[in-house]
Design a protein that fits this description.
Number of strands: 3
Distance between the termini: 39 Å
Strand order of the largest sheet: 2-1-3
Shape: globular
Length: 221
């Protein structure tokens, strides 16, 4: 429906893939805010933040391919990296979840490496990453320290009482270890691909948006 509205407003004879992509983005992320006043520093932070996500998505074995990268604000987001997923997955491995943590922390890692600064733009990424790590430890039994147990009670809520008071400290240490390891791995991968990071961020600052085909070209040489 959104794609049809966009095509009609542009007086197009038919709906194109560009309209569909924009319609999806509008529904998921909110409308574009091109009129929003953004400082050069904020634009640069956003460009490197999104470039960090995109580079890691390319370099990580199990990450979904990048469909679009943009520094045009949408909804509450200053920019975004959209991914393409053509598979229905019934199970997710520990390796895939660890890579998800790395990809989520790629924006923060890129800001720090490229600009020696960090921003509040990574707050949602950090929140999601912490929840993923927490679920790995407390729900999916993916911690060697805690073991293959689920801490959920019959109501689906986390319940530490049957395992004693020390379990909360162990969970905290395990979650912290997963997050810190992922952040270090994100920094290592980006450091090895700094030229691509700078190149992609530079194009984002110039064009504001990179589509799937344009993104693939960065890695064809």
């Amino acid at each position: 429906n959104e794609a049809a509205i966009l095509a009609a407003r542009a007086n197009k004879p038919k709906i194109t893939m560009t309209d569909i992509t924009e319609g999806i983005n509008k529904v998921i992320l909110g409308p574009q805010k091109k009129s929003l006043l953004i400082t050069d520093k904020e634009r640069k932070l956003t460009a490197y933040h999104e470039a960090g996500h995109a580079v890691l998505a390319k370099m990580l074995e199990h990450a979904d391919p990048v469909q679009e990268v943009s520094i045009i604000p949408r909804g509450l987001a200053g920019g975004y990296t959209m991914y393409k997923n053509d598979e229905d997955k019934y199970y997710i491995s520990k390796t895939e979840m660890e890579e998800k943590l790395i990809a989520l922390l790629g924006g923060r890692a890129a800001e720090k490496l490229a600009l020696d600064d960090i921003s509040t733009g990574a707050s949602n990424d950090i929140e999601v990453a912490t929840q993923v790590a927490r679920n790995m430890v407390t729900v999916y039994g993916m911690s060697d320290e805690i073991g293959p147990i689920s801490l959920k009670n019959d109501n689906g809520e986390l319940d530490y009482q049957m395992f004693g008071e020390e379990i909360e400290d162990k969970i905290g240490r395990e979650v912290n270890k997963l997050i810190n390891t992922a952040y270090r791995d994100a920094q290592t991968i980006l450091t090895q691909n700094m030229a691509k990071l700078h190149e992609i961020a530079g194009v984002l600052l110039e064009k504001e948006k990179i589509n799937e085909e344009e993104f693939r070209r960065f890695f064809q040489n």
